[in-house]
Write a structure and sequence with these properties.
Blueprint: H1 3-25, H2 29-68, H3 94-101, H4 105-111, H5 116-127, H6 133-156
Helix pairs in contact: 1-2, 2-3, 2-6, 4-6
């Protein structure tokens, strides 16, 4: 993991937490929630790229070993893609994130597509749902815990 990714996280965190505070002060809890959520969502894409690059490198290494010893019966799988940058607009899967940085239980809970946090994020973002101050406080806590988990992992790997 490079220092650039950790710094990118710190920069996102600073920018979006400031926005979140501004929205909180204006009692726009929906936008405050989306603001802090965005930190995780934005940093997950470059982490997913690391995962894709690692997977490609592993596949290439398997083929190099095979070409050096073609008598082996374990022919590697054909390449389906040489892409190693995450370019999708959707949120990467937690499996891709964990392949790059290891287990992330708090982030996994936050990003679970069937879980309450992701459902609320989608409800706000896609259907303009409201969120009360009380519910926002609980949801904000979950996001901040996942961000802390991410920050710690990225810092250790920088």
């Amino acid at each position: 993991m490079n220092k650039n990714l950790y710094q990118q996280f710190i920069d996102l965190e600073k920018e979006y937490k400031a926005l979140s505070s501004e929205y909180e002060n204006n009692r726009s809890f929906e936008m405050a929630f989306i603001s802090i959520w965005s930190i995780a969502e934005h940093i997950m894409k470059p982490i997913a790229s690391i995962s894709m690059k690692n997977k490609l490198q592993n596949s290439l290494n398997e083929w190099v070993k095979y070409t050096e010893n073609p008598e082996t019966k374990n022919k590697p799988k054909e390449f389906k893609s040489f892409q190693f940058e995450y370019i999708s607009t959707s949120i990467p899967s937690i499996a891709q994130i964990e392949l790059a940085v290891g287990p992330m239980p708090k982030l996994t809970t936050l990003m679970d597509s069937k879980g309450k946090y992701r459902k609320k994020r989608n409800g706000i973002a896609h259907r303009a749902e409201k969120i009360s101050e009380t519910v926002y406080g609980d949801y904000k806590k979950a996001v901040l815990e996942a961000l802390s988990e991410l920050r710690n992992v990225l810092e250790k790997r920088s």
